[in-house]
Design goal:
The structure holds 2 protein chains of 2 kinds. Chain A has 15 helices and no strands. Chain A is mainly alpha-helical. The longest helix of chain A has about 30 residues. The chains are: A mainly alpha, B mainly alpha. Chain B: Keywords: Cell membrane, Membrane, Transmembrane, Transmembrane helix, Transport.
């Protein structure tokens, strides 16, 4: 959402009654303006804000999908949170989520995205369109389709990857499930970083690069001394956004469903399994609240960054 | 000179490796639907149309694509109309607390994700009787997409000149008429962007329909695709590959259309 956050326009701030006409050009008036905003706000309130607040309440109850606790849930205070602290499943998921975000977003997507943007920076024509085309294709195809494409790719007996590497019978999804979903998500999400860095590199003044080159700077020195200082803000923006998205990604469920033996049970999958498959809604809500809080911290950090830039 | 040649070789090797990494997983989707007896292996197809015939006879395949279409169009209409009205009012009239509201919207849209909200949304849908209802799912997805949509479209509204609206008003047009006949034509590219963004989001969304629709007749293609490869013994690769292709083609066409017509301009929040 990099572009959508222009600071509140200052034009409207100095609007006095005499000049109000020029801003409210259609003569809406506050009442009608309120009526225009109301339907959207009502839907957002019911289906976005209310669930986010309700989940905090649900997390303090022993709500279950079926049984006595479904009909008459009891207030249990912080029990669900204490349970999370001593629940090995929760810690397993937290560690896996950290690995997943670090491996596929912070390392995979950032490095590949930047490499692609850097390699293609001065190119025009077919090579650039083809490379960018396939990277974007991996990003826009429906998640249920790409997940199955990876099932086919990684199949142990006749999958394309084993055929290419000459190691038939190598069970990627059974023996290296975490590596598999990290590679999968890197492949899936690199397009965003590639486009963001592509736009960022366009802002690096060519004259600076030129003088660095004339001064005899190597490729790596040019990157370190000229390019990175210019795009530092973009890198931070990119890191925060893709970390947030990857942290909340449900995609790996389509590939491994958390298995084998919970080895890919990232938090998103863990919430689904405990709350909706095992029916422990109260506990699932408590974990959801933890996810919301982590999201909140990352998002506030991100918005502060945008404000400072604006 | 040797350094230059080495550099070229390095460049093309790296590009070839990256290209292979991104292309190889896609090959199966391009070959298997046209192969008589597809396996997981990527083979040169023998160009049969038989698999598409099988899809026509499949009990849920085409129906699920129609369901996806209903959900996508329904959500897109609601999101476009509501976000356009809200963004126009927020752009032109200084309502009390407007800046705080916009900030809160931006924050909400990024933190309340499907993952974080699946438990309460599921509960809410049960309480309101919205399980197995397309309308319910459309309302829930609209609520989730609206904040980001309002933000994107407000950018367009802020940059359009107000003089047209003023002249229309001088000629006695009502505010709704002005919105419909003056503002909408001016911000049409923005509305199209929002519509495409919404359709792409809903078309690919798996989690929400998976949670809220249990009736297989009502499930969209995302859920049917998942069911096809997870349930019931040996996966039928003829159906899976062909269905996957049919389900993917609209997204690709839409992307080509948008990038041709407007240029694929970079909108950071275009994908969640």
């Amino acid at each position: 959402m990099a572009q959508q956050t222009s600071p509140p326009d200052t034009k409207a701030l100095d609007e006095s009654p005499a000049r109000g006409y020029s801003s409210d050009a259609a003569g809406l008036g506050r009442l009608r303006a309120g009526a225009f905003v109301a339907p959207a706000l009502a839907l957002i309130a019911v289906f976005l804000v209310f669930p986010a607040l309700w989940v905090i309440y649900l997390g303090l109850m022993n709500y279950r999908l079926t049984g006595i606790a479904a009909a008459e849930p009891q207030f249990v205070g912080l029990d669900n949170y204490l349970k999370a602290l001593s629940d090995p499943g929760f810690w397993n998921s937290t560690v896996l989520t950290f690995q997943f975000v670090l491996g596929s977003a912070v390392i995979g997507q950032v490095v590949l995205g930047f490499t692609l943007a850097w390699l293609m920076r001065n190119r025009r024509g077919t090579l650039k369109s083809v490379v960018e085309g396939v990277v974007i294709l991996a990003w826009i195809l429906p998640s249920a389709v790409v997940a199955f494409l990876w099932v086919a790719l990684l199949d142990r007996d006749s999958g394309t990857l084993n055929a290419l590497l000459g190691i038939p019978g190598f069970a990627w999804l059974l023996d290296y499930p975490m590596l598999s979903i990290i590679l999968f998500n890197t492949w899936r999400g690199t397009a965003f970083s590639m486009m963001l860095y592509g736009a960022a590199l366009g802002n690096v003044p060519p004259s600076h690069l030129e003088s660095a080159r004339l001064a005899g700077a190597s490729g790596w020195q040019q990157l370190r001394d000229v390019v990175f200082p210019h795009i530092r803000g973009h890198i931070l923006t990119n890191l925060l956004l893709i970390s947030l998205w990857t942290f909340n990604d449900f995609g790996p469920f389509l590939l491994t469903a958390g298995g084998p033996e919970n080895k890919t049970e990232i938090l998103a999958v863990y919430v689904y399994k405990t709350a909706l498959q095992a029916g422990d809604l109260g506990y699932g809500a408590a974990i959801s609240t933890i996810i919301l809080l982590i999201n909140l911290v990352v998002a506030i950090f991100y918005l502060r960054l945008l404000r400072r830039k604006g | 000179m040797t350094r230059f040649v080495a550099g070229r070789i390095g460049f093309y090797t790296l590009v070839a490796l990256l290209l292979a990494f991104f292309t190889i997983p896609l090959l199966w989707l391009a070959s298997a639907p046209f192969t008589s007896n597809p396996t997981y292996e990527v083979r040169v197809p023998d160009f049969t149309w038989e698999n598409f015939q099988i899809i026509l006879d499949h009990p849920y395949a085409l129906g699920s694509l129609v369901n996806s279409l209903i959900l996508a169009i329904g959500t897109a209409v609601l999101v476009v109309v509501m976000s356009a009205l809200a963004a126009y009012a927020l752009s032109r009239v200084r309502l009390p607390g407007r800046d705080a509201l916009l900030y809160a919207l931006l924050l909400l849209s990024s933190i309340i994700t499907g993952t974080a909200a699946m438990v309460p949304l599921f509960q809410l849908a049960i309480e309101l009787g919205l399980i197995d209802s397309h309308t319910g799912l459309i309302l829930i997805m609209t609520g989730g997409l609206l904040p980001a949509a309002i933000f994107m479209i407000k950018d367009f509204m802020d940059t359009t000149p107000k003089s047209y609206e003023e002249s229309a008003r001088v000629f006695g047009a009502s505010p709704l008429q002005i919105v419909r006949h003056v503002v909408v034509p001016v911000v049409r590219p923005g509305l199209a962007t929002i519509a495409v963004w919404t359709i792409a989001n809903v078309w690919g969304n798996f989690l929400m329909p998976y949670l809220l629709l249990s009736d297989v007749e009502k499930q969209p293609a995302a859920v049917i695709m998942y069911t096809l490869y997870t349930e019931g013994g040996q996966a039928n690769l003829k159906v899976l590959s062909t269905f996957g292709l049919l389900y993917s083609v609209p997204v690709v066409l839409m992307y080509l259309f948008v990038s041709k017509k407007y240029g694929f301009r970079f909108h950071g929040g275009i994908k969640r």
